[in-house]
Design goal:
299 residues; mainly beta; Immunoglobulin-like; 2 domains; five-stranded mixed beta sheet; 2 helices
Length: 299
């Protein structure tokens, strides 16, 4: 009988210990700083989230660096010592790597330990020191130009219009969310569309973007916009788009539906100006102006 009582009491105590350990869980996500495309002079920032399941008190946190040859490249937005506040189950830190201009090409490894302790100091009984490790693996390489298209959006357009002898096209707005996975600024080499009838069988028009598209900095994701002209009448169409990295590499191809609406339908719609005209019509404006200027200068 006594042995049975001891077994029950012991089981309850063990359950209490393990329950408290799980409740006081501590971890980080992601548990690494990895980048294989850094180049001399580049900068990269990784967000690390410290997670506590039981933030019942303020904790001291300290970072211990084991980064042979590259410790001076690293900085932390919260410093090497900071507080994990009571009541906050998640605390973010930003680890920034700044590679010197004269850094040698190659791989570099190390780790960063996160150690915690109570602000109140040691107390009686069992005290758990929580901690975690961030693994560091980086490579310094030559220039790499590369990006991926994470998402695209195609907006409704209006039909074009005529003014005097000039045929201004409708303006198609095509939005891309680009992630730069290289180490130099990236911008699509070409954005183009083949516009088909609604069944996708008959090709009606091929158009390329006309604007200077914004570039995306290394290791960043950015929303950028391409504008493309269309001379098609109102209706529904099938679009096959292409986003190219360069003359030989395609970043993404896909199909979308396009609606072209009558002129004046879309509130706040931005129409094309001179840049949307075809080259032959642009020349009908440029050449006469050029002749007049020459006559004024040399006539």
């Amino acid at each position: 009988m006594k042995r049975g009582i001891f077994f029950v009491v012991g089981s309850l105590l063990l359950y209490g210990v393990f329950a408290n350990t799980a409740f006081a869980g501590f971890g980080i996500t992601p548990p690494y700083v990895h980048n294989d495309t850094l180049r001399p002079g580049s900068e990269y920032t990784q967000e690390i989230i410290i997670v506590r399941s039981d933030p019942v008190e303020d904790l001291n946190a300290e970072l211990a660096l084991n980064l042979p040859a590259i410790e001076s490249w690293f900085s932390f937005d919260r410093g090497l010592k900071f507080i994990l506040p009571k009541g906050e189950s998640q605390v973010k830190i930003h680890v920034t790597v700044r590679v010197p201009d004269n850094a040698q090409l190659g791989g570099y490894n190390g780790n960063i330990r996160i150690r915690t302790s109570s602000l109140e100091g040691p107390s009686t009984g069992v005290s758990l020191a929580l901690g975690a490790q961030i693994d560091v693996q980086i490579k310094v390489v030559d220039k790499i130009f590369d990006f991926v298209v994470r998402r695209v959006e195609l907006f409704e357009a209006e039909e074009g219009h005529q003014k005097w002898w000039l045929n201004f096209p409708g303006k198609i707005k095509f939005v891309m969310y680009i992630e730069n996975i290289g180490n130099v600024p990236a911008v699509p080499f070409r954005v183009s569309m083949d516009i088909y009838d609604v069944s996708g069988q008959q090709l009606l028009e091929h158009v390329d973007s006309t604007n200077a598209i914004d570039s995306v900095l290394p290791f960043d994701t950015k929303k950028i916009t391409a504008y493309l002209p269309t001379w098609l009448p109102p209706g529904g169409y099938r679009v096959k788009y292409s986003v190219e990295k360069d003359e030989t590499r395609n970043a993404q191809k896909g199909e979308l539906s396009l609606s072209i609406l009558p002129l004046g339908t879309i509130t706040g719609y931005e129409q094309y100006g001179f840049e949307g005209l075809k080259l032959n019509q642009q020349l009908t404006v440029i050449v006469p102006i050029g002749v007049v200027i020459l006559l004024l200068l040399f006539g």
